[in-house]
Write a structure and sequence with these properties.
The chain is an alpha+beta fold. The chain has ten helices and five strands. Helix 1 packs antiparallel against helix 3 and helix 2 packs across helix 3.
């Protein structure tokens, strides 16, 4: 249930609902249905606000993160992604600070003449040309095709804020970093879905 649908649910409760609920409470209540409705709205909004900020990034992030160095060859990057069955990973400098993210989309962009990240465009291009369109990958390193600068988050960022960033930027993962930009974890879309469900 999204927060939009929760707000719609809140608005679907009427004063008649409040009145019927008040009749079921034994004893005398010195409050009007309108007052009760206003109290309910304020309490509901307060509860939603608490929920939105209750779960922090460090509570759902994956702590053991598969990474590559910015100077790793693309063959090393692809092998690491394939061996671990992941579609993207953080790229680190030698001092372990995050400098980028490399994902399947970055490879697809590089493999398309028009730079649109579409698997079907890559297939089309492969069918229409001779030779391998990824041949130049042998001479490239992670920093040549990674997305940079990466969007990152802190361990104390509320999960719903991370989800909003991922949604607005169409991202599948966000590195979690400390104050020195050192990687401490990663949050994937699947982590958020699992948490919210």
């Amino acid at each position: 249930m999204t927060f939009r649908s929760l707000n719609e649910y809140r608005q679907s409760i009427t004063e008649d609902d409040i009145y019927e609920a008040m009749k079921k409470i034994p004893g005398y209540l010195d409050i009007t249905p309108s007052d009760c409705m206003e109290l309910y709205r304020v309490a509901f909004d307060h509860a939603i606000s608490k929920l939105k900020n209750a779960i922090k990034a460090d509570q759902i992030m994956t702590r053991k993160v598969i990474t590559v160095n910015e100077n790793a060859t693309l063959i090393e990057v692809v092998k690491k992604m394939a061996d671990n069955e992941i579609s993207g990973l953080p790229v680190l400098k030698n001092d372990q600070t995050v400098v980028g993210i490399i994902s399947e989309k970055d490879f697809l962009k590089r493999m398309n003449d028009d730079k649109k990240p579409s698997f079907m465009r890559v297939v089309l291009q492969c069918l229409q040309t001779t030779g391998c369109i990824a041949a130049d990958f042998n001479n490239l390193v992670a920093s040549d095709i990674m997305s940079s600068p990466p969007l990152m988050t802190s361990p104390q960022t509320p999960v719903l804020e991370v989800a909003n960033i991922m949604d607005k930027k169409n991202m599948n993962r966000v590195p979690v970093v400390d104050g020195q930009l050192k990687l401490v974890g990663i949050i994937a879309r699947s982590d958020i879905v699992q948490t919210l469900c």
